[in-house]
Amino acid sequence: QVQLVESGGGTVQAGESLRLSCTISGDIPGINYMSWSRQAPGKKYESVARLSTITNTADYPTSVKGRFTISRNNTGHRINTVYLQMNNLKLEDTGVYYCEVERGGVPFWGQGTQVAVSS
Residue 1 in contact with residue 26, Cβ under 8 Å? Predict the structure, then answer.
């Protein structure tokens, strides 16, 4: 089993930055992907950053490319932390952000953290 707890959400003004954190604990070995997704009111659930733990490469959709960066702190076999650095935030970045991992083809999610961007 894998447990994920997100933190770092809040309310910021457009143009500002925010860093989200996700503490991952449990069966860390075998996690192939770590990612962040978001759910905005009235919009589809969207992946905003995905990191391969095998190749250590990341992918981003056009909507956030150049503004968002995913990274991880590999502190051990039982705890990892994955971050989402969000710069130059826009109103459309508002939503609930979820940390996800995939282990052996099975996905795990955290409870989400709210990000609100105001003008």
Answer: yes
How far, in Å, are 24, 27, 35, 101, 108 from residue 3 at the CA level?
A: 6, 9, 14, 10, 8
pLDDT of residue 79: 77
> Where does the chain show beta strands of DSSP type E?
2-7, 10-13, 18-26, 31-39, 46-52, 58-59, 68-73, 79-86, 95-103, 106-109, 113-118
pLDDT in tens, 29-62: 888 899 999 999 899 999 999 999 889 899 999 9
Q: Is 67 exposed, middle or buried (0-12, 13-18, 19+ CB in 10 A)?
A: middle
Distance CA 116, CA 96 (A): 9
CA pseudo-torsion sign 47, 53, 54, 55: positive
The answer to whether 14 and 115 are in contact (CB under 8 A) is no
